[in-house]
Structures are given as structure tokens and as C-alpha cells.
Amino acid sequence: AVVSTQSTGDAYLPESSPVRTAQKRPLQSPSSFRVPKVSKTPTRGGNSVSRIKTENVSSSLSPVNASPSQSYSQRKGAGDVVCTFNEGGLTPDWKGSRAGVKVTVSDTVSVKQPYQYMFQKLSSKAEALDEHVDIMGSMLAQFHSTELENCAVPAQGECRVVGRICCDSQGKMNSSSVMLEGSLALCNGKSVAVDLRMLERYALFPGQVVALEGTNPTGRRFMATRVLEPVPLKPSASQRGEQPLTIFGACGPYTSLDSLSYEPLSDLIAKVQEEAPDVLLLLGPFVDVKHPLIEKCDVGSMTLEELYNSQIKYVVDNVPPTTHVIIAPSQRDANCNAVYPQPAPAAPHVSRDNVTLCSDPCLVEVEGVSIALTSSDILFHLSSEEISHPPGSDRMGRLAGHLLHQRNFYPLHPPAEEINIDYPYFNKHCFFDTKPDILLLPSDLRYFVKNVQDTVVINPGKLAKGSGTYFRLNVRGSGKITDSVVANVVKI
């Protein structure tokens, strides 16, 4: 039964989000980060190996003799469809119809090999940020057939400038504290305060590269009268066939907070076995560093890496052979490198043709359907920093649209404290120049499926948090993607 459908506006509020304060840092979602303590177990050579507190081992799914989750067993509305997209126009068929699918991972929007991080120089970071402003500025100047000027030079007449939005203090940005930071080449890296009072509408956040029109009588305050339209992305050149494509997907955590039984993941795999979709998309975390039992080191006899590999192995061993599994990590995965962009997880036991391990973020193409995905909660982070006028517009669509306008997966700068960005690699692997058909943005904010600039944007929620939801979509035909997709968000 359909419980609810899409809604718009500011009705999309977090089901369980931290209380926001006036200070910009720290911003942590959904709880404070703490590294679990480990005990040292002696080994034969006299050395020691880090292991978690020992308990009995049970099934292949859970390394712990875990009792079932009481909160999960008492959930209501299992199987209810809580959000729909385009279902009135097409009749969906959730069963897979292909014997196998072709999955291609982008060579540029992905990190295929681990790399050395924590060696980033301030000069390299500054060059990467400055390069982004120059590239976006060149595209904006060409698109609007205009010449961009130095934002810090007095201009009595109307002029157009470009730069990065930033805040004039350490607190949360508001309409009176907006500054525009110019590039080194165009403005010698200088900044100027921006007066927004003459703008009819705007939506700004720190890190956003924008072009403004207005005057700068003194050289110290730019009187903005217009925000120039962003350069639209080119449509994807991929060609889809007429054969239907069914995709199921979910985002971790995959077990309830009061247990490590992984019942939500088990039920999801059971549904995949029943429907046999063409693709199963799983985003981390699988072993969540913020899980209470992991924080207490009360997680069984396996190491964190063994625990992670056991979950991946369970998924791979139990999906139908015709279902292609795509797995992406998260910075909250206890055994994965907490850096963005994040390399694909290491899983030496996974060698099947129907399994693809990708990085975070990543751009993959499945039978002509381009899917851009990231497990970082960029929607929540943007919602905490963005200022907009007038109120009452489609907030979730606007937040998702920022990624398409800025052409990257994490346009916020400075980032949230839990996001560790390596900027030289960020510039190499986190930008896209064509419009994806599907943009997957899991968040602690309320689930939704939306048409944003002719891209189907999905926030499936979290499988074992809040309502406990996953998504399913069906692509039919080779026409416009927003007219060819039927999508649901479903309670597990």
C-alpha cells in the first residue's frame, strides 16, 4: 500500500539530525566520531595484532552470537511504499529481465587504486581551489558572452565578476557576512564583501563558484543586482536500449543500533532473491564506526576487516547470478581509508564477473544509463550552510541542483569536519562534465525521488536508520530519462 508520495518545499526535514548551532564547526552527522578501542592479542612471533573484544561466532552474516534487534522486530509498515516517482505514467515491473548487464566505471570520475594521502601541501590545496574558480569562470564568461573583471577594483558602472562564496568570520554564514573570493589570475586572490539586498532571489553557500552582476563603487563592497545563470551540463552521450532495466539499491548502516544481527541487510537480500533485479547498488557503511557496539568494542571475535569482508561475502554469495552487484565504500566504514575521494574497497575474495567494487564518489554506466553516486551526506551538510531567498521553494531539489551547477560531488568549502578532502585528487576524480541520468545522494534528511534539471535524483534514506528504507527503479525505453523511469522508496 502506498503510504505517502512526494512532497515539496521545506517539509523535508531530518528524521533524526543533530541540533544545529550558530557555530560552523564542528558539524558531525549523525553522531560524534570516536575510534573504537582495540585490545592486543599476542601472536607467535611475539608481536601483537589488533582484535576486537571476543564473543561467540554465529552465522556467516553476523560474526557475533547476536540476539535479534528489538527495535527492528517491532517496526511498522514493512514493505510499504513511502515515496513514488512517475508511477502514474508507467506500469513498473520490479523483476529483472536480463541475463546479465554491462557495467562500465568511469576512468576519470573514480579512484581505482589506493593513493597516499595526508601529504597534501597548503600550496597544492590553494592551487586546486584556485583552478576550479578559473575553470568555472572561463565557462561562465563563454556561456554569457561577457568579460569578467577584478572583483576588488572600484567600478562605478555595471560590471560582472566571478569568485568563490565564503564567510567573513568563523560563524555560520548569513546574508550580511557573504564575501566573494576571486582567483589569483583575475583578482590577485583578493576578496570583497557582497551586498545581497538588491537581489530578488539567491541560494548561496560557502565554496560555491558564482558570477555576479552589479557595481563596486568603493572597491570594498560589491552591490550585487543579479546572479548569472550557471552553465548547464551537456547531456550524456550514452544510448539506452528498449529492454527494461531494474535497479535495487540501499545505503548503510545495514544493522540496527541495538544489535549486530544485520537483519535489515538479510531482509534486503531476501527481497533481491525474490525479484532478481538486474542491478543491486549498495553504499556503505557496512561496519559503521558510529555504531554503539563498535564504539564499545563489543563486536565479536573478528577484526574490523574480517567483519567487513564477511558482509561483502554474504551479499555476493546470496544474490542471484543474473544480478550485478555494485558496492561503494563510505568514510564511516571502520576498515576503509577515511579520505575523499575514497578508493574502492579491498575485497580479495570477490572475483566474480557480476560484482563491481567502485570508489566514493563514482560514475558508472549500466546498459547506457549513467549513474553518479556518493555516500557522503552532502545534502545534510549543504542544508546546514546554505542561505536562500525567498523562502518556500523546493529545498531538496535546490540542494541537489547545486551539485549539478557546480559540476562536482562535494562543492561545500570548507567541508564538514567529518569529510577529509584531498584536493589535488578531488580535482582529478570528483568532477563531471556531462549530466548523469541518475544521481544517488543518500542522506539523513528525509527520503525523496525528484526530477532535478532532467536528472532523477534519489535520496533512498538509510536501510537501518529512521524509517529503514531502500529504493527500486525501473527504466524503460530510450526516451527522456525522467519520462522513462519509475521509482519507489520502500520500507524494509
Give an overview of the whole structure.
The chain has helices spanning 70-73, 122-144, 184-187, 263-275, 292-295, 304-318, 378-385, 395-406, 423-429, 481-484; strands spanning 39-42, 48-51, 81-85, 103-105, 155-167, 178-181, 191-195, 202-204, 209-216, 221-227, 234-235, 245-251, 279-283, 324-328, 355-357, 362-366, 369-373, 387-389, 434-435, 438-440, 448-452, 455-459, 469-475, 485-491. The protein is α/β, with parallel strands linked by helices and 492 residues long. A 7-stranded mixed sheet has the order 3-24-23-12-13-14-15. It is globular and about 70 Å long. It starts with 38 loop residues before the first strand and ends with a strand. Mean pLDDT is 86; it is low at 1-22 and 30-59.
List the helices and strands and how they pair.
Elements: E1 39-42, E2 48-51, H1 70-73, E3 81-85, E4 103-105, H2 122-144, E5 155-167, E6 178-181, H3 184-187, E7 191-195, E8 202-204, E9 209-216, E10 221-227, E11 234-235, E12 245-251, H4 263-275, E13 279-283, H5 292-295, H6 304-318, E14 324-328, E15 355-357, E16 362-366, E17 369-373, H7 378-385, E18 387-389, H8 395-406, H9 423-429, E19 434-435, E20 438-440, E21 448-452, E22 455-459, E23 469-475, H10 481-484, E24 485-491
